[in-house]
Specification:
Its cofactor is [3Fe-4S] cluster; [4Fe-4S] cluster; [2Fe-2S] cluster. This is succinate dehydrogenase. By secondary structure, this protein is of the alpha+beta class. The protein folds into two domains: 3-110, Beta-grasp domain (Ubiquitin-like (UB roll)), CATH 3.10.20; 116-130 and 143-244, Fumarate Reductase Iron-sulfur Protein, Chain B, domain 2 (Orthogonal Bundle). It has eight helices and seven strands. The protein has helices at 33-46, 117-124, 146-155, 163-167, 174-185, 194-207, 218-222, 230-244; strands at residues 3-9, 18-24, 69-70, 73-74, 95-99, 108-110, 113-114. A five-stranded mixed β-sheet has the order 2-1-5-3-4. The longest helix has 15 residues, at 230-244. Bound molecules: iron/sulfur cluster and FE2/S2 (inorganic) cluster (FES). Iron/sulfur cluster is lined by residues 158-164, 175-176, 179, 223-225, 227. The site of iron/sulfur cluster has 14 residues, from α4 and α5.
Length: 247
């Protein structure tokens, strides 16, 4: 396959960036999108040009590091992570525009890499359960209703990639936040800190500069883990309950 790539190049956080055009004529349809970028970087290295900086780690769809805007869509045209996207999704001769996540709380560090540490700071405000674990308890010591266990597991699949923020016209991280609140709020072990968790995490979300949710739904459409929109209802429900409780 032959593809034309328009890639955002930006040398650091403060410099202005712009799209650069590259041609690749030896792309296999079986390559992943990131392997295609690896091929481009090998070519740039050979030609003495600086390779394109982009993030990846697991390349298996589980770490959340690899977010890119591809032709204006977070993670590209399929419901998957960028690392699980394959070049067979595109056509021979296509022009593909590749940009970093666009959101004020995710500043561009270099080229396609953004700083997503705002998510880490939100998690630090309550995305955990603080109990002494001690020895492993018997599995049946704390019964969990099946529907709640399933719901907690389903939303725990959020990998913190940030596609929901990049896709949202408001730059809101409500889907990410709702996934974390729902995951811990469904489980008996998460009840002790349920009120403080939601109040502190929402405060950090707003402090980082993420926008509010206006029910547009672009987040859930872009989410590679198909986190449903109703986690945001759960987030709002828990926040109002905490405020009623005097937090
Ligand atoms: S909710 Fe979905 S899109 Fe948002 S960070 Fe989690 S996995 Fe990524
Ligand atoms: S590199 Fe880990 S999810 Fe894509």
């Amino acid at each position: 396959m032959r593809v034309t790539l328009k890639i955002w190049r930006q040398s650091d956080r403060v410099s202005e960036g712009r799209l650069h055009t590259y041609e690749l004529d030896d792309v296999s349809p079986d390559m992943s999108f990131l392997e295609m970028l690896d091929v481009l970087n090998e070519k740039l290295n050979t030609e003495g040009e600086e390779p394109v900086a982009f993030d990846s780690d697991c390349r298996e769809g589980i770490c959340g590091m690899c977010g890119l805007m591809i032709n204006g869509e977070a993670h590209g045209p399929e419901v998957t992570t960028t690392c699980q996207l394959h070049m067979r999704t595109f056509n021979d001769g296509d022009t593909i525009t590749i940009e970093p996540w666009r959101a004020d709380p995710f500043p561009v560090l270099k080229d396609l890499c953004v700083d997503r540490s705002a998510f880490d700071r939100i998690i630090q405000q309550g995305g955990y359960i603080s109990v002494n674990t001690g020895a492993a308890p018997d599995a049946h010591a704390t019964p969990v209703p099946k529907d709640k266990a399933d719901r907690a597991f389903d939303v725990a699949t959020c990998i913190g990639c940030g596609a929901c923020v990049a896709a949202c016209p408001n730059g809101s991280a409500s889907l990410f936040l709702g996934a974390k609140i729902t995951h811990l709020g469904e489980l008996p072990q998460g009840q002790a800190e349920r009120d403080t968790r939601v109040v502190n995490m929402v405060a950090q979300h707003d402090h980082e500069g993420f926008g509010g949710c206006t029910n547009i739904g672009e987040c859930t459409a872009a989410c590679p883990k198909e986190i449903p929109l109703d986690v945001i209802s759960r987030l709002n429900w828990d926040l109002h309950a905490a405020l009623r409780h005097g937090h």
